[in-house]
Amino acid sequence: MGMGNRRVTVKVPASTANLGPGFDSLGMALSLYAWIEMSEAGSGETSFQLFGDGMDQLPKDKSNLLYKVAQMVFKEAGANVPELNIAMYSEIPLARGLGSSASAIIGALVAANALIGSPLSKDKLFQMATAMEGHPDNVAASLFGGIVVSAWDGEAAQVARIEPPEALRTLVAIPAFHLLTEKARHALPSEVSMADAVFNVGRSSLLVAALAGGELALIRHAMKDKLHQPYRAALIPGMAEILERAADFGALGVALSGAGPTLIAFVDAASSEKGELERFLQATLQKEGIASECQWLAPALSGAEVTAETVSPSSGDKSGAFGLSPALLERIKGEVNA
After folding, report:
1. What range defines the domain where residue 327 resides?
2. Whole-prediction pTM
């Protein structure tokens, strides 16, 4: 298949990071997705079709993150593809703590690599993504799927993947406001006490063991945190009460998803209290004047998935519903959660 008539599509999951105590190290892929389509524009100019929550706010020129990431791949691989047709549909809300930037980075890395025949290994893409994000938890989850335990020393990242317990489900409460990761990080202290560090090491270790062994009853104790959530609670009214009381409404455990403002509860799939928990989360935020949307999500077992096809020169340029190419729409219309 020649690159000139290759079109690749990547389906990449959202992610939740930290899982409470595992700051910048624990993550999990979630069954909420973005689709990125990429092909060479040939003699034409680079074009963008961006659709989904908040996507109209993003640039449609070569300053776009998807284009810039793709060019990094081409440079690393010694390829030259200056003009691209890029389409993206995302159901992952922006700046809500569900890994929207990580999914875009992973989707663009995988798509660009596949477009030129996949010369870069998955580990190489992981290393590049970690350096771009500055931490490995979200990108590892979106790339590898499942639950990930990762570490980065500023030069090299390592990751181990855990298969999520079959009975694990999540409920996310997504407040109707954005919280940029940079702002959430500014809320953190530059130093923490030895006691708090030891507390988190114990809880994080217990959480990994509980998830790996399917010991769901331990999650309530393991998801507690003293490194970042107490300092970020002031940015999200209602969060402190939710962290304290969600277990009384059937949650196995609850945490701030990434930098927030989304809150995520772990739930046993067999629980009879799902409705009560959902009402508690929304009512607690509503008391603070915050509207929210709740979604039930399963862990995504697969990370980024790529498909490639041969297309005729004219087949990728026409727009269908969502403004996407008919080929992409046809592939995703049965998968979109909307």
Report:
1. 3-162+300-332
2. 0.90
